[in-house]
Amino acid sequence: MSPADLIVPMSRSLPLNDGLWYQIQNATDVESTSVTLPSNAYRAVLEVYASFHGDDEFWYTNTPASNGPFREVTVRVDGVLAGAVWPFPVIYTGGINPLLWRPITAIGSFNLPTYDIELTPFLGKLLDGKAHEFGFAVTNALDMWYVDANLHLWLDRGSTVTTASLVSYDAPELAANTTSSQSGGPDDIMYHTTASRHISTTGWVKSSYGNITTNATQTFTFENTIAFNDDTSETVNQTTVAHACILAADYAGVLYSVQEHRNFPLYLDSQAQEQVIVRSSVTHGLDEATVAAGRWSGAGNRSLRNMQSSVVDVEERDGKAVGVSWGTRQTYRYEAADGCYFRNVSSRDYSVVSDQSNEVCVKAASAGGGTVTAALPAMAGADMAPELGRN
């Protein structure tokens, strides 16, 4: 589908300084802005950004005493939940241990991921010429989250007014649960947190393109386990899965159908070995796949898999660091009809020791398949951590 005709910034507006992020300071904080939409809009998509800092920079490591490890950004239109974002756990360049990200920085740290929420079914509530409130909040938030958004609007060039109606809405309450268990000594404890959410909306818009009915669905699942062992180790194992489905159709059939699947695995481990080696390791990834169809579908299918594993060993004697070594391996694979790209990079201490890339695509030989895949070596998973020596 073609790009939006109009992009409306949803930033916080102050008398002297426009364009600032919304600041979410706690779990009850709601930041909002009022927007009046053009009367001839026929599609609306909200692009959301989220950046976490302060007490919530490492929200995925939080125990129940710190509101637990689950976070979601919610978007409300006139007080009604319109969509949600379950964020990718970006680790900034000083996070966990700064050496983990020298010289290869963590996924997303220099280019924050963005998240799209299809708001077209809500146009039936928004095309009345009045200002409407868009509100942003973060479930379980601690200080500080920065949230910002852009509203992408498609305008009907063939008319000055479109009509619309929201015909169905289903958004059950968030399902979330945390349990704890203890084994061995008082410092051996494990917390297990799960969450899930489903949001589905359907609406129609009548424009010069005809009467188009759009269904937008978001489905999320989350699982996090935090384990402490006798004050010598801490592990975090987390998986966030987000699935979005958008289906727009007119009397002749499907105009565009988009299914987006995102998976964010995260594994952190910090442990003392032999009481002198303190090892910190991070394995995380951003796994995305998009399947598109229909007369307006545009570029078609695409996928991205970006996996990274980093390890740092610090040798300590008498409470002082006397030696350190670290390494990172990252594999990046993008596949689409318009091209493929692969990169495999490894570093040891401050030096890049291996860097391989490939842009070759191979079209599947099966008749009528049209599938495009990259002619690339297999990707490594959670076992991709680099081997380290000791100084």
Structure report:
The structure is a single chain. Strands 12, 13, 14, 15, 16, 17, 18, 19, 20, 21 and 22 form an 11-stranded antiparallel beta sheet that branches. Mean pLDDT is 90; it is low at 364-383. The protein has a single domain (6-156, 163-374), classed as Jelly Rolls (Sandwich). The chain has 1 helix and 24 strands. The N and C termini lie far apart (55 Å). It has 391 residues and is an all-beta fold.
Briefly characterize the structure:
The protein is 1% helix and 59% strand. By secondary structure, the protein is mainly β.
What labels describe this entry?
single chain, 391 residues, mainly beta, Jelly Rolls, eleven-stranded antiparallel β-sheet, five-stranded antiparallel β-sheet, 59% strand, PNGase_A, Peptide N-acetyl-beta-D-glucosaminyl asparaginase amidase A N-terminal domain-containing protein, PNGaseA_N
